[in-house]
Fold:
Amino acid sequence: MTKKILMVCLGNICRSPLAEGILKSKLTTDFYVDSAGIGGWHSGEQPDQRAIKTASNKGISISNQKARKISVADFDKFDVLYAMDKENLKELLLLAPNESGKRKVKLLLNEAYPNQNDDVPDPYYGDLEDFESVFTLLENALEIIATKIKKTANQ
Ligand code: 4NP
Structure:
C-alpha cells in the first residue's frame, strides 16, 4: 500500500516541489505527498519563482511549500521515495539506514516508463521554457503514477 509519497530532487526548489504539487492535484487527501532535497542550501525557502509561475499557469499552487533537506527519518515515515534523477537515486541509496529504506527508493520516471532510466532534467540553470517542459514531463508521468498508486492503495 502506497499512501505516503516523498518526491526528492537536489535542491527541493524546482523539480520535487512541482512533482509534489502535481501529484497532490491528482490524489485525494487520503494520501500524503511531500518533497525534500538532497542538499539543504535552500531550506525554508519557497520554490523557485519560475516553478511557482509555471505551476500557477496550469492552475496548481505550490507557493506555500517550504524547502527542506531529506532526513534519515523520512525512510521510515514514507512508503516510497521518488528520485528525480539517477544522481538523487544514488544519494538516497547511500542515505538509506537499512534494506527496508533502500527498497522504498525509486527513480520516478521508471515508475511510469519502466526500465528507461530517464532523468527529470534539472531546470535550475535554464529558463522558463525548461520549467515548462519539466512540468509537462512530470504531468504526463504522474498521471500514470497516480493511477497505479490509486489501484494499489486498497490492496
Ligand atoms: P532542483 O534544482 O534540484 O530541481 O530543486 C536545483 C535547485 C538548486 C540547486 C540545484 C538544483 N542549487 O545548486 O542550488
In short: Residues 66 and 112 are 27 Å apart (CA to CA). The chain has one domain: 3-153. The pocket of 4-nitrophenyl phosphate is lined by residues 9-15, 41, 122, 124 (CB under 6 Å).
